[in-house]
Amino acid sequence: MESQQDNVLKLLNALNIEYQLTKHPAAYTVEDMDKLNIGPYGDGCKNVFLRDANTKRHFMVVLLKDKNADLKSIQEQLGCTRLGFASEARLFKYLHLQRGEVTPLGIINDFDAVVELVLDNDLAGKNKLGFYPNDNTATVWISFDDLKKIIEHNGNKMHFVTI
Predict the structure, then answer these.
(1) Interatomic CA distance for residues 129 and 45, integer angstroms
(2) 4-161 architecture in CATH?
(3) Which of 9, 134, 156, 159 could make an SS bond with 113 (beta carbons 3.0 to 4.6 A apart)?
(4) Across the chain, which distance is largest between two alpha carbons, in Å?
(5) What are phi and psi of 76, to 5 degrees?
């Protein structure tokens, strides 16, 4: 059986996406990543999995690692009901990820494309963004344009916001 990481790398190859893979000890938080000192490879990202107040919509918010996700501002820009953090059960149900593995690449497990991607405008044009390949023991470095290509390929809705 192929691993989550294998599935991500297979998709990147199938889409002709250029990437670099950095293996490292398990990292559960941005602080853990900072301690690994792999930042010189590119821009690390913070990824937050949210749900609206009606729990009908789910969002993966992607922003640069040093920023904070202002939920009220994001909610206003999306025009949705109040946002809150989604449970671990929802994270697993929709993206087959565990806490500490949150990544937009989890959408490859979102076969019905129900999770909406919310991308910070400051990511645009970046050549090397770091994301877990659905496994927190590695980071895959891809461009912003390639992240959009993956999202479009999977069919998930995309929003651009200012964080």
Answers:
(1) 7
(2) Alpha-Beta Complex (3.90)
(3) 156
(4) 42
(5) -65, -40
- Tokens 């891809």 belong to which residue? 142
pTM: 0.94
Cα angle 109-10-141, degrees, rounded to a multiple of 5: 90
Phi-psi map region of 100: left, alpha, beta (phi>0 left; psi -120 to 50 alpha): left
| Ordered per-residue pLDDT tens for the chain, 163 residues | 789 999 999 999 999 999 999 999 988 888 888 888 776 678 999 999 999 998 899 999 999 999 999 999 999 999 999 999 999 999 999 999 999 999 999 999 999 999 999 999 999 999 999 999 999 999 999 999 999 999 999 999 999 999 9
